[in-house]
Amino acid sequence: MSETSPKLRAELEGIPTYKPGKPAAAGGPVAYKLSSNENPYPPLPGVMESVTAAASSFNRYPDMMCTGLMNELAERFGVPASHVATGTGSVGVAQQLIQATSGPGDEVIYAWRSFEAYPIITQISGATSVKVPLTPGDVHDLDAMAAAITDRTRMIFVCNPNNPTGTVVRRAELERFLDRVPGDVLVVLDEAYREFIRDPEVPDGVEIYRERPNVCVLRTFSKAYGLAGLRVGFAIAQEPVAAALRKTAVPFGVSQLAQDAAIASLRAEDELLGRVGSLVGERSRVVDGLRAQGWTVPETQANFVWLRLGERTVDFAAACEQHGVVVRPFPGEGVRVTIGEVEANDIFLKVAEGFQKEL
Ligand SMILES: Cc1ncc(COP(=O)(O)O)c(C=O)c1O
């Protein structure tokens, strides 16, 4: 055997591997997974039926252009179908956006801490990450992000609400920021948690992109619509960007099961958004409960809460796990806890209370 190994791109060295949320322990006592911002509700029967029906022909390739889904999304959002592009989850679409805009020598700006896929997909492309720290209140520092723009900047992510803090940027500050971004820099409004927002001051990216050709809105079926395992997300952007997304898509990436489930979910939107309403109610209960215990919890508009625990992060996550809930620790920084089933949220609140008492 040869001593040499295939030459791999230098950019791959040191890429942090994506850490998926830890699964709930199998076979243990009750165990709830609150580590991946998933939807705790099982698939709706109608959505399940569409998936089972599509399964009978998975010997065939899916519709490569996702025609039915694109048309359905176009109608749902009141945009031309040519402005819609689908992909394998919104993380897949985010990677396509980077591929379409950025390479070695280019810069991609995003807040930090934010969604952990951003540094990975940026580094894979060979572009340079420019991480702009969140404010002390855990919110995007849009002034600092605007100040970080150089002539090498190609793309900027604004994660709204931000993962993992749940915090939002509001209409006036976002518009002010967008006014400062040169027209040849693409701003991606990552709205993976859009449906959980109740603050009327948080703008809908779909309204913003209509007036701004350098804005692309990223959405997903993984969270509010409960299709995380099927991998389907989409972008809404004006034609040149949407067309670039079609060029960078993995051919046949979105399975027919995913396409049909997404269409069925759009048609069952009222019921699904009713579930989102219940989760939002649980979110208020959890946040109020934590604050009553003395915790400082940033205002969250997503399906998770953020506790800035610093050095106590890992101990807190271990305590949660001992009691049957798995949360997402970011060692040295804090834990992100998904709003899940009522019983799971109760356990989390109980652990948080015990932990607070020990301090
Ligand atoms: C901010 C944000 N964007 C995008 C995604 C990707 O979701 P998906 O690829 O399942 O659509 C996530 C998932 O956690 C997220 O938190």
From TrEMBL:
It comes from the Bacteria. One of its GO terms (molecular function) is pyridoxal phosphate binding. Pfam families: Aminotran_1_2 (PF00155). SUPFAM superfamilies: PLP-dependent transferases. Keywords: Aminotransferase, Pyridoxal phosphate, Transferase. Residues 33-346 form the Aminotransferase class I/classII large domain. Residues 1-20 are annotated as: Disordered. Its EC number is 2.6.1.57. It catalyses: an aromatic L-alpha-amino acid + 2-oxoglutarate = an aromatic oxo-acid + L-glutamate. InterPro entries: Aminotrans_II_pyridoxalP_BS, Aminotransferase_I/II_large, ArAT, HisP_aminotrans, HistidinolP_aminotransfase, PyrdxlP-dep_Trfase, PyrdxlP-dep_Trfase_major, PyrdxlP-dep_Trfase_small. The modification N6-(pyridoxal phosphate)lysine is found at K223. Residues 1-12 have a biased composition (Basic and acidic residues). GO terms for biological process: L-histidine biosynthetic process. CDD domains: AAT_like. Aminotransferase that catalyzes the conversion of aromatic amino acids and 2-oxoglutarate into corresponding aromatic oxo acids and L-glutamate. HAMAP family: HisC_aminotrans_2, Phe_aminotrans_2. Homodimer. NCBIfam families: hisC, PRK03321.1. Belongs to the class-II pyridoxal-phosphate-dependent aminotransferase family. This is Aromatic amino acid aminotransferase. It comes from Streptomyces cyaneochromogenes. The lineage of its organism: Bacteria, Bacillati, Actinomycetota, Actinomycetes, Kitasatosporales. The gene is hisC.
